[in-house]
């Protein structure tokens, strides 16, 4: 089966662009969930710590769903292929949850009217939390098999470039998702509602995955898949066996996993809390989770401006990711994955430190662009480094296990970092409180520095 990979035809630029379109839709939906889940849940009464606990949906579903779905997709034999059922199924279920999430309060009211029961005040927040869990689970259902498509259909020598095109799709999808509402506001004087933005995300996810499922042909026949499954089942009877086989691939795999662990603590410190940092630190809006209605109304315009600013910053962040994704892939082929990755992480560390010390809008927006260089590398090169050690027939399970070291760090951010922020309270004029959201950047920079040191110690295959 090893020789089969060498017979794959090299992908052209047009084929790579077509290949990553489904991931464009996936990232579109994920970016909308990142930017707007904070304002939605805070509006339903979530404190920083509660918001962090809600964010646990991502890591917990990632640690459970991706390894399970990855292993299942390796062994799936169907008329639709081994990966495509998971791509489309995840997109359709996530799209339903994306529609319900911003309407959680309305759904709670409808349920009360239907049942005649009186629900507690936090029922809408509970529904929102459940929808976040569904969204995150379904994104993970689609994401792992999508990554596994690369070794399924792309020649080994083009894996770094293929992952760079995935970074390109991540960057472009995030730019369009984050930039649409601010663009309409500033250039057309039309404020797009949060509901409409989530509907837009649902459509992008579903249509993108349908396109991928229709246009990407999995190279293996049913006979070859069954043969791979038989080989895999001999060696991987249990999940524990899968883990043992995963770490036995090479001593360097453990280093790559530890590198990824610290990388994603650093990344999620920004991803999870940046919108709150924009609203409460850059725009000076006090915490409104327990504020009276008149106080909430007084800061309504500033809150909206801070949310739009966050969207603009994420658009800049991902635009830079989009612009440098392919150059990073080309440079990594010339100079090695680890060298390019270490330099990219250092740029992200410097950007984090700058944002920790400055709340100037222009400075923050510019530094988010600098951080986008690191993000482009994070989305591509660790996967390219790992793909050197993947055995045929185990692509899905390997990518699923690797995702544990992406999802696991988020538990740390959602609990420990969220708890630290919740304890860093200060009084503001008017009797309100605020939090030191900028502290997340210090924590993130330290973890990214650890990741860069570990990355530098990895010995890649020549």
Question: Can you describe what's shown?
Answer:
The protein has a single domain, classed as Up-down Bundle (Growth Hormone, Chain: A). The chain is built from 21 helices and 2 strands. Strands 1-2 form a two-stranded antiparallel sheet. Strand 1 and strand 2 form a beta hairpin. The longest helix is centred in the C-terminal third of the chain and has 36 residues. The protein is globular, with a radius of gyration of 22 Å. 54% of the residues are buried.
Shape: globular
Number of H- or I-type helical stretches: 21
The CATH architecture would be Up-down Bundle
User: Biggest sheet, strands in spatial order?
Assistant: 1-2
Q: Regarding CATH, which class?
A: Mainly Alpha
What attributes does this structure have?
2 strands, mainly alpha, 79% helix, two-stranded antiparallel ribbon, 2% strand, 462 residues, globular, Growth Hormone, Chain: A
Please provide a brief summary of the model.
The chain has 462 residues and is mostly helical. The protein has helices at 2-6, 13-19, 21-43, 48-55, 57-75, 84-100, 104-115, 123-153, 159-188, 194-215, 222-235, 239-247, 251-282, 293-298, 300-335, 337-357, 361-378, 381-387, 395-402, 404-423, 439-457, and strands spanning 425-428, 432-435. Strands 1-2 form a two-stranded antiparallel ribbon.
Topology:
Blueprint: H1 2-6, H2 13-19, H3 21-43, H4 48-55, H5 57-75, H6 84-100, H7 104-115, H8 123-153, H9 159-188, H10 194-215, H11 222-235, H12 239-247, H13 251-282, H14 293-298, H15 300-335, H16 337-357, H17 361-378, H18 381-387, H19 395-402, H20 404-423, E1 425-428, E2 432-435, H21 439-457
Antiparallel strand pairs: 1-2
Helix pairs in contact: 3-8, 3-9, 3-10, 3-13, 4-20, 5-8, 5-19, 5-20, 6-8, 6-10, 7-8, 8-19, 9-15, 9-17, 9-18, 13-15, 13-20, 13-21, 15-16, 15-17, 16-17, 16-18, 16-21
């Amino acid at each position: 089966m090893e020789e089969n990979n060498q017979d794959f035809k090299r992908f052209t630029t047009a084929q790579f662009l077509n290949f990553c379109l489904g991931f464009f839709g996936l990232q579109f939906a994920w970016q909308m969930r990142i930017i707007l889940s904070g304002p939605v849940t805070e509006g339903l009464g979530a404190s920083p710590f509660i918001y962090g606990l809600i964010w646990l949906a991502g890591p917990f579903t990632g640690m459970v769903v991706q390894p399970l779905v990855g292993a299942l997709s390796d062994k799936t034999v169907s008329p639709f292929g081994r990966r495509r059922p998971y791509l489309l199924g995840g997109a359709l279920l996530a799209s339903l949850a994306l529609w319900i999430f911003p309407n959680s309060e309305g759904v709670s009211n409808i349920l009360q009217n239907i049942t005649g029961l009186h629900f507690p005040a936090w029922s809408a927040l509970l529904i929102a939390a459940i929808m976040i869990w569904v969204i995150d689970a379904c994104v993970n259902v689609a994401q792992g098999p999508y990554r596994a498509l690369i070794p399924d259909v792309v020649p080994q020598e083009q894996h770094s470039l293929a992952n760079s095109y995935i970074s390109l799709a991540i960057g472009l999808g995030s730019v369009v998702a984050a930039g649409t509402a601010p663009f309409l506001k500033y250039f057309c004087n039309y404020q797009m509602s949060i509901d409409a933005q989530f509907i837009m995300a649902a459509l992008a996810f579903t249509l993108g995955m349908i396109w991928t499922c229709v246009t990407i042909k999995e190279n293996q026949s049913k006979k070859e898949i069954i043969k791979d499954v038989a080989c895999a089942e001999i060696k991987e009877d249990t999940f524990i066996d899968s883990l043992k086989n995963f770490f036995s691939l090479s001593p360097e795999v453990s280093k790559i996993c530890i590198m990824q662990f610290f990388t994603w603590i650093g990344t999620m410190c920004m991803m999870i809390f940046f919108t709150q940092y924009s609203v409460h630190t850059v725009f000076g809006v006090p915490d409104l989770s327990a504020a009276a209605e008149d106080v909430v109304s007084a800061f309504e315009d500033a809150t909206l401006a801070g949310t739009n600013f966050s969207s603009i910053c994420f658009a800049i962040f991902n635009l830079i990711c989009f612009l440098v994704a392919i150059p990073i892939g080309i440079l990594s082929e010339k100079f090695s994955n680890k060298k390019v990755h270490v330099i990219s992480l250092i740029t992200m560390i410097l950007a984090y430190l700058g944002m920790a010390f400055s709340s100037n809008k222009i400075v923050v927006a510019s530094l988010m662009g600098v951080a986008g260089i690191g993000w482009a590398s994070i989305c591509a090169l660790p996967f390219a480094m790992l793909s050197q050690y993947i055995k045929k027939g185990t692509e899905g399970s390997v990518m699923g296990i690797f995702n544990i070291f992406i999802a696991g760090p988020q538990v740390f951010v959602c609990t420990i970092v969220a708890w630290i922020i919740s304890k860093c309270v200060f009084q503001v004029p008017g009797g309100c409180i605020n939090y030191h959201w900028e502290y997340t950047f210090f924590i993130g920079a330290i973890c990214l520095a650890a990741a860069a040191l570990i990355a530098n110690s990895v010995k890649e295959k020549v």
